[in-house]
Design goal:
7% helix, 27 strands, six-stranded antiparallel β-sheet, five-stranded antiparallel β-sheet, 4 helices, mainly beta
Length: 424
């Protein structure tokens, strides 16, 4: 693999970063849409814009303000909607994505303060499966229900039958299978996962299980008469807070050529007295993996992910993603790999890519650096929170990444870079 890097856009000021992402609008053709998100605080977008290109990103139209699609104020509360990556399903002529709605009780500033400071469930997440017909901007959206519970009501958003059930953080994308079925993961409520499994929270995850996640992998087939997918849910996967103090976060799942379904998620070895974590000092930080050989009904217990030569690697609590190359149909993983001193969310560098073998392991001899910390970069550099698109003309994988923490003392004074990854 060969990697090229270029500065895509500079940070607008010392307090704001300009995050970018791109996707194709249709199943074929070269019309792209680019999203610009301005960010000056953690886990929150302060502005959002979109623009279109009809020539594969060579030239662009004017920016349009789309922030109102993402954030809605409801009295003292705020409701934010996060759109996941769209994948085209050629069997049914539509795009499908997993989106997420987050309800912040008393607004995001107070909610995050109570969450991180006191371990309170001060906001709730629900994942939705969204369908967009090709050639249309309209989406149909359905709450992903793995247990009984109410749907979201715009005028009754605090309904406990909704807020207390089917909580789920969205996973990293949808995999469309050759027969038109789909597979995707969600970070479902740890409380619910333990209950469904018949396991005792006091033994497995006594520390703040009400705000943490387990893993459910969802499989769906489109029901044309309903206009929605009929979903089936795997037996939940849980991990002890002695192994990952924050449970399952940001899972990704994909079907391998053998039919095995691979799931990978970020763990954490972070100690937090406010959450009563039980993790032991010195516990190593990993990406965790599990797999299913029965079509996604059950998964193995999660263990630290490793290379094909049995070497276990270390990785902070950062997002990662799979990408199936449109050029060679091989599966690659993009994420952070660091050293044994990794703790909590850091370090978030270097950013790496490697091919996945048919067992679901990283092939060590394909490991390639996308970017790394360079002279002058802060030790809090974040080479994470990236977005991916594949160029339909060349098959090149494009990665967009704002390098948060690039400059010492300025988290958000960060330029956005574009990386071109050429695979054989």
């Amino acid at each position: 693999m060969k990697v090229r890097k270029e500065l895509y856009v500079e940070s607008p000021d010392k307090k704001t970063t300009d995050q970018r992402s791109q996707r194709y609008v249709n199943s074929t053709g070269l019309r792209r849409v680019e999203r610009k998100s301005l960010q000056g605080e953690s886990d929150w977008s302060n502005a959002a814009f979109e623009r279109f290109s009809d020539d594969n990103g060579r030239t662009w139209g004017e920016w349009q303000d789309v922030y109102s699609r993402s954030v809605e104020v409801k009295g003292e509360d705020e409701i934010a909607t996060y759109n996941g990556k769209e994948t085209f399903n050629p069997h049914f002529g539509h795009f499908v994505s997993v989106d997420m709605r987050r309800v912040f009780f008393d607004g995001h500033h107070k909610a995050y303060k109570r969450f991180w400071g006191h371990g309170e469930a001060s906001f709730v997440d629900h994942s939705m499966l969204s369908i967009r017909k090709e050639g249309s901007d309209e989406r149909t959206t359905e709450l992903i229900k793995y247990e009984e519970g109410a749907d979201f009501e715009p005028d009754n958003w605090r309904n406990p039958a909704y807020t207390d059930n089917n909580r789920a953080y969205l996973g990293c994308g949808v995999d469309v299978l050759d027969n038109g079925e789909i597979i995707f993961p969600i970070g479902a409520s740890m409380h619910a996962c333990l209950r469904i499994r018949g396991l005792d929270a006091a033994e497995i995850f006594p520390s703040c299980s009400e705000i943490m996640h387990g893993l459910i992998v969802v499989r769906g087939i489109f029901n044309e008469s309903r206009g929605h997918y009929d979903l089936t849910f795997s037996r939940p996967v849980v991990i002890s807070d002695l192994k990952s103090s924050r449970g399952v976060d940001e899972p990704a799942a994909i079907m391998l050529p053998t039919g095995r379904i691979l799931a990978v998620f970020r763990g954490s070895n972070w100690e937090n007295k406010n959450w009563n974590t039980r993790i032991e000092p010195g516990t190593p930080a990993h990406k965790w993996y599990c797999y299913s050989d029965d079509g996604g009904r059950t998964f193995t217990d999660p263990v630290p992910w490793h290379f094909d030569n049995r070497e276990v690697f270390y990785s902070a609590a950062t997002i990662s993603a799979f990408v199936r190359s449109i050029k060679n149909d091989k599966i690659y993983w993009i994420g952070n790999i660091s050293d044994h001193a990794t703790y909590g969310n850091f370090p978030r560098h270097p950013l790496m890519i490697a091919q996945i073998d048919d067992r679901g392991l990283l092939m060590k001899d394909t490991l390639t650096t996308i970017d790394k910390r360079e002279e002058g970069d802060s030790d809090k550099l974040q080479l994470s929170n990236f977005s991916i698109i594949q160029d339909r003309e060349t098959g090149t994988i494009e990665v967009y990444l704002a390098k948060l923490g690039q400059r010492e003392g300025y988290t958000w004074w960060a330029d956005c870079y574009r990386y071109f990854i050429d695979v054989e």
